[in-house]
């Protein structure tokens, strides 16, 4: 397998669940403590050995590219004020990653968003990261998938067991267990009704895919919700070329959901030596009086 050098990150979604916060700010820039969620995702990409990012964007998402570019006025002001630590931090973000953006001109679904990257990806395997899923892990989740893809010589997707009541929120796999954490996928269904789900193993937003996925995406007809679903193309890929579902190691936060977003903020703050003591003290007092 050729090395995985590029990552596709779809960021075209409107973020309606977080209105009014997302009226003029892309939801991907909402912070996890003081770091925009998209930067947490980019850190995972880089820590997985991937050098180039392709953002699939829509209207009003320009601020995402700006975040990873130089901000001359800001850098100049910080320099004049002698705030060296901050300058270094801000400059490091602009040098962090090589990014390009491709505009998805109509909201035709996740499969269509990934297909928009075809000409930039070319003939090599690539990763897809959905920024609503933040995965806090010792070994980055994308790296875990790259290792699986190399091991089995096929695509690999992150999976996780979810409660029966939640299966209709995810792509669900039908599979055979190969090792403690890896599964051979033979079918996939996007957001099935609870009693039609083939399992409780849900696809979480990390994928390592061979370039052949684009041929399948080209042929994929609109599916669930009238959208071109990545899940439907993956099902065909799994049938013809195999696909691994990997129960990744790590803590996943669904920051597309308000409760998940708050949980991620609390968990990340609890890991910060500058914030944890005060937060713990506050939570103890607050929850003590609540219980
Ligand atoms: C997308 C995928 C779904 C997957 C989920 C993971 O759905 O279509 O298969 O399980 O991401 O977060 P979305 O949450 O964008 O509706």
Secondary structure topology:
Layout lengths: L5 E5 L20 E2 L2 E2 H11 L4 E6 L4 H6 L4 H10 L2 H12 L2 E6 L6 H6 L2 H4 L4 E4 L3 E4 L4 H12 L2 E7 L9 E7 L4 E9 L10 E9 L3 H7 L10 H12 L1 E5 L3 E4 L3 H13 L5 H15 L1
Parallel strand pairs: 1-4, 1-6, 4-5, 8-12
Antiparallel strand pairs: 2-3, 6-11, 7-13, 8-11, 9-10, 10-12
Helix pairs in contact: 3-4, 8-9
Bound molecules: 1-O-phosphono-alpha-D-glucopyranose.
Any low-confidence stretches, pLDDT <50, length ≥5?
none
Distance between the termini: 55 Å
Provide the CATH top-level class: Alpha Beta
Strand residues, percent: 15-25%
> Averaged pLDDT, please?
95
Number of domains: 1
Write a concise synopsis of the structure shown.
By secondary structure, this protein is an alpha/beta fold. The protein is built from eleven helices and 13 strands.
Question: Could you characterize the architecture of this molecule?
Answer:
With 291 residues, this protein is an alpha/beta fold. The protein is globular, with a radius of gyration of 20 Å. A nine-stranded mixed beta sheet has the order 5-4-1-6-11-8-12-10-9. The protein has a two-stranded antiparallel sheet with strand order 2-3. It has one domain: Spore Coat Polysaccharide Biosynthesis Protein SpsA, Chain A (Alpha-Beta Complex). The longest helix has 15 residues. It is built from eleven helices and 13 strands. 1-O-phosphono-alpha-D-glucopyranose (G1P) binds next to strand 11 and helix 9.
List its traits.
single chain, 291 residues, Spore Coat Polysaccharide Biosynthesis Protein SpsA, Chain A, nine-stranded mixed sheet, two-stranded antiparallel ribbon, 13 strands, binds 1-O-phosphono-alpha-D-glucopyranose
């Amino acid at each position: 397998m050729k090395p995985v050098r590029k990552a596709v990150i779809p960021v075209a979604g409107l973020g309606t669940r977080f209105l009014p916060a997302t009226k003029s700010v892309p939801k991907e820039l909402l912070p996890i403590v003081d770091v925009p969620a998209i930067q947490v995702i980019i850190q995972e990409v880089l820590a997985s050995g991937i050098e180039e990012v392709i953002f699939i964007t829509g209207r009003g998402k320009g601020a995402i590219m700006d975040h990873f570019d130089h901000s001359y006025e800001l850098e100049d002001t910080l320099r004049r004020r002698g705030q060296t630590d901050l300058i270094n931090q801000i400059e490091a973000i602009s040098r962090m990653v090589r990014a390009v953006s491709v505009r998805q001109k109509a909201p035709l679904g996740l499969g269509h968003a990934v297909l928009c990257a075809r000409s930039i990806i070319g003939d090599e395997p690539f990763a897809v990261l959905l920024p609503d899923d933040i995965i806090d892990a010792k070994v980055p989740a994308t790296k875990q998938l790259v290792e699986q893809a190399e091991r089995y010589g096929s695509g690999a997707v992150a999976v996780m067991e979810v409660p029966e009541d939640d299966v209709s929120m995810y792509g669900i796999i039908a599979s055979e267990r190969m090792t403690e954490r890896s599964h051979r996928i033979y079918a996939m269904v996007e957001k099935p009704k609870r009693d039609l789900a083939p399992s409780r193993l849900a696809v979480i937003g990390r994928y390592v895919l061979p370039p052949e996925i684009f041929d399948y995406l080209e042929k994929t007809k609109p599916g669930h919700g009238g959208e071109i679903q990545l899940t439907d193309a993956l099902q065909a890929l799994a049938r013809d070329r195999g696909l691994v579902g990997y129960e990744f190691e790590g803590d996943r936060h669904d920051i597309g959901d308000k409760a998940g977003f708050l949980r991620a903020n609390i968990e990340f703050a609890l890991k910060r030596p500058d914030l944890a003591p005060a937060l713990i003290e506050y939570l103890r007092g607050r929850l003590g009086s609540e219980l």
